[in-house]
Design brief:
Gyrase A, domain 2, 2 domains, 7-stranded mixed β-sheet, 4-stranded antiparallel β-sheet
């Protein structure tokens, strides 16, 4: 069963505006109602790849986080680039425009990788046309910028690759960057950042759980051990919260162990009429030849059966999957058709995406396992 994001009342896009409202930033609205009375210093800990259902299923590995367990939804697709963009901007994907992992950009022959912020057709990832310069691609002031301009001290703690990256410049700009070298260093730098007085929001990113989930699987012993690390990071930060501090733990998506693979590169019935195949294995964007939309939709539904739901762009937009408003720029990046996995299935490319095709864990669709993410709120007296 496919669900829908709860934009405006319970999604990742609502988190930072709600926190800023509680920190006293004018024109921001508390959409979530977290218990944050008297809070002036907040850490927003982003754990890449942790689902609400996964967390609930592992109380032994994550006893601390399960004490504070609650859930909101990611946006759509349930993928890192889109979700982090919603966190940083406070907007649904239809407004910030980062509508997927691999997307077609009108006027360009290949796909753009939104996470790496590069065109597949370009040998130089820094050689971007003007409309793909991050600040042009996503020109709306971010929530981080609005906070900074309102006097909130903004800090981004994360790996070096995020410092000045295309995605950071597009959707997470506005925070002073502090590099973290390890899990312990992430916790240490976050705690140090919370020590300064005054309204503060620290966005701290941890990505190792997602990596292990992809490579070893989200049900593997390695994943469960990594979840213990996540729980320890959270409890360590919580133990050092100032009296007016709070720790909010969220995630960008969950992950599903893939049991069935349909290989696009080996199935001609899937390639017929498809100009470009974007998205990712559990949520594919199909950019079709002119006039081929309905034929491609029929052929994909026949080939994939009940394992996938195939909808048109207009259907996806009308269902509100990208938010209540979809800009013309965002619409132009969405596939003519969307293929969403209903179960543990994936559409892989054994030749063109050989590494991704072998990964055990994937995400992107709107199953509850992928869409529901934690929203743990911890105050000093609760830690």
């Amino acid at each position: 069963m496919l669900l829908s994001p709860r934009y405006g009342s319970g999604s990742l896009a609502d988190v930072v505006p709600s926190l800023l409202a509680r920190l006293g930033v004018d024109a921001e609205t508390d959409r979530l109602g977290f218990d944050l009375d008297g809070v002036r210093r907040v850490c927003l800990l982003m754990v890449d790849g942790l689902g609400a259902e996964q967390l609930a299923a592992h109380p032994q590995e994550a006893p601390f986080l399960n004490l504070h367990r609650a859930a909101i939804t990611a946006g759509f697709p349930t993928t890192t680039a889109t979700s982090l963009s919603s966190v940083g901007t406070g907007l649904p994907p239809g407004q910030h425009g980062v509508v997927g992992y691999q997307v077609s950009i009108p006027g360009h022959p290949g796909l753009m990788n939104s996470l790496q912020w590069k065109l597949q057709s370009s040998a130089n990832p820094h050689d971007l046309p003007e409309e793909l310069v991050p600040e042009q691609f996503q020109p709306i002031p971010t929530a981080f910028e609005r906070a900074r301009d309102a006097g909130v001290r903004m800090m981004h703690v994360g790996p070096a690759i995020q410092n000045g990256s295309g995605l950071t410049r597009a959707c997470l700009r506005g925070a002073a960057f502090q590099q973290s070298w390890s899990a312990a260093d992430l916790a240490t730098e976050t705690i140090s950042g919370l020590a300064a007085d005054g309204p503060t929001l620290i966005y701290s990113y941890y990505g190792d759980l997602d990596l292990i989930g992809h490579v070893r699987g989200p049900n593997s012993p390695a994943w469960r051990l990594e979840l213990r690390n996540v729980d320890h990071i959270a409890s360590t930060i919580a133990s050092e919260l100032p009296h007016d501090g709070a720790l909010i733990v969220v995630s960008d998506h969950s992950m599903v162990e893939v049991k069935r693979r349909f290989d696009y590169d080996m199935l001609p019935e899937l390639r017929e009429g498809v100009r470009l195949l974007g998205g990712e294995p559990r949520m594919r964007f199909l950019y079709t030849d002119d006039g081929a939309v309905h034929d491609v939709q029929s052929s994909w539904q026949r080939a994939l059966g009940s394992h996938f739901t195939i909808v048109t762009k207009d259907e996806a937009i009308s269902r509100g999957w990208f938010g209540p408003t979809v800009s013309s720029a965002a619409s132009g990046r969405i596939g003519d058709l969307l293929a969403l996995a209903n179960d543990g299935s994936a559409v892989v490319r054994s030749r063109a995406e050989s590494i991704a095709a072998t990964l055990i864990g994937h995400h992107g669709s709107l199953t509850s396992a992928e869409l529901l993410v934690p929203a743990c709120v911890i105050r000093p007296h609760q830690s």
